[in-house]
């Protein structure tokens, strides 16, 4: 269906592309502990602290994926004047990801998702609980103006703009309009991934909702492929987009083209996943890059499918590196027989 040599050649085109990632930059914090005993204060487990690490989450994870796949990335977002904001900036700098588009403000704290991970030293660590520290879903006028300026300044050199919306109010109507204006003038494409309000991004080139999000948008269950196809067609019209990529978990993906057929793709790899954290960021990053490199939509979707299948086998928030994707395509990166 998709010759491995051709797919690898398509990935090789990623290196010449630039993607502007606009969205909610998040610090993903992991605290690791070893189970010690049951507390006397309450029937809860006490963990003996062993280590802590912070990874790039949200739009920062999408940026990390674009960078790891060999393209140039320009993240645009906000972090606070707080330790979490400093850690996000330091991680970007250590990876060689530019921070010129990132605004720091005292009006808005950096979003932090803290995951408490429990397990023995030789056993798999499991997430026990997650604590989210979230900013108010509003953006002060000065910060919004600074973001609009950065999109205007950096967007002209981008082949694609990726909108990563985690519901923290960063992607205001004025900022989205600036993105669309830059895209119209430059001829670049725009893709969107939104947890809660995808229909705000009408007119984008492509969007990547998961199946439960599509069910919410159309107001009903999607029990089979005909139902999903009908819903996908409806959503393409409502979004006025050219392509819609729906992720379906263990059932693979479905890609819809405004001027073409609906294509259902089987899952890549095993359905025994390790961790879905950040998988959506990997999918939209790969799909965006592939489209920007001139890849036909179904092949772009398959590359995103392979990348997504690889990343869910990793623990915690993590990107897919270009070499990993190329190796998978060389070995078995072709659709499984259903």
Give an overview of the whole structure.
The chain is α/β, with parallel strands linked by helices and 338 residues long. It has a single domain (4-25, 60-109, 137-331), classed as Ribokinase (UDP-N-acetylmuramoyl-L-alanine:D-glutamate ligase). 36% of the residues lie in helices and 27% in strands. It contains ten helices and 13 strands. It has a nine-stranded mixed beta sheet, with helices on both faces. A hairpin with a 5-residue loop joins β11 and β12 (253-257). The model has no long low-confidence stretch (mean pLDDT 92).
User: Looking across the biggest beta sheet, what order are the strands in?
Assistant: 5-4-1-8-9-10-11-12-13
Distance between the termini: 13 Å
What is the CATH architecture assignment?
Answer: 3-Layer(aba) Sandwich
Overall pLDDT metric: 92
Give me the strand/helix succession.
Answer: HEEEHEHEEEHEHEEHHEEEHHH
Q: Helical content, roughly?
A: 25-40%
* Model regions low in confidence, pLDDT < 50 over at least 5 residues: none
CATH third-tier fold name: UDP-N-acetylmuramoyl-L-alanine:D-glutamate ligase
- The structural domain count equals 1
Number of helices: 10
Class per helix and strand makeup:
alpha/beta
* CATH class identity: Alpha Beta
Strand content: 25-35%
Most strands sheet: 9 strands, mixed
CATH superfamily: Ribokinase
Specify the overall morphology. globular
User: What's the alpha carbon Rg, rounded to whole Å?
Assistant: 20 Å
User: How many strands?
Assistant: 13
């Amino acid at each position: 269906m998709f010759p491995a040599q051709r797919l690898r050649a398509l990935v090789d085109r990623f290196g010449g592309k630039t993607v502007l990632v606009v969205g909610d930059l998040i610090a993903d914090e992991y605290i690791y502990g070893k189970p010690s005993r049951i507390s006397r204060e309450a029937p809860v487990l006490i963990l003996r602290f062993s280590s802590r690490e912070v990874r790039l989450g949200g739009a920062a994870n999408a940026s990390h994926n674009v960078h790891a796949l060999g393209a140039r990335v320009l993240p645009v977002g906000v972090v606070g004047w707080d330790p979490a904001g400093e850690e996000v900036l330091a991680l970007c700098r250590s990876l060689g990801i530019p921070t010129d588009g990132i605004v720091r403000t005292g009006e808005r704290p950096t979003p932090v998702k803290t995951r408490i991970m429990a397990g023995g030293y030789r056993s798999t660590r499991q997430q026990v609980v997650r604590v989210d520290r979230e900013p108010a879903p509003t953006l002060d006028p000065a910060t919004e103006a600074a973001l609009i300026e950065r999109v205007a300044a950096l967007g002209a050199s981008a082949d694609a703009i990726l909108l990563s919306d985690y519901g923290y109010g960063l992607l205001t109507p004025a900022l989205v309009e600036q993105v669309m204006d830059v895209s119209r003038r430059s001829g670049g494409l725009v893709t969107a991934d939104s947890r809660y309000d995808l229909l705000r991004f009408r007119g984008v080139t492509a969007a990547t909702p998961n199946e439960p999000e599509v069910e919410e948008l159309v107001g009903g269950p999607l029990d089979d492929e005909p139902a999903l196809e009908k819903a996908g067609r409806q959503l393409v019209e409502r979004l006025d987009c050219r392509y819609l990529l729906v992720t379906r978990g263990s059932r693979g993906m479905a890609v819809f083209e405004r001027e073409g057929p609906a294509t259902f793709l089987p899952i890549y790899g095993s359905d025994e996943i390790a961790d879905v954290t950040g998988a959506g960021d990997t999918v939209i990053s790969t799909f965006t890059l592939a489209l920007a490199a001139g890849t036909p939509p179904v092949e772009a979707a398959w590359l995103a499918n392979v990348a997504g299948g690889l990343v869910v086998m990793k623990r915690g928030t993590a990107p897919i590196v270009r070499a990993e994707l190329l190796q998978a395509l060389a070995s078995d990166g072709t659709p499984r027989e259903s």
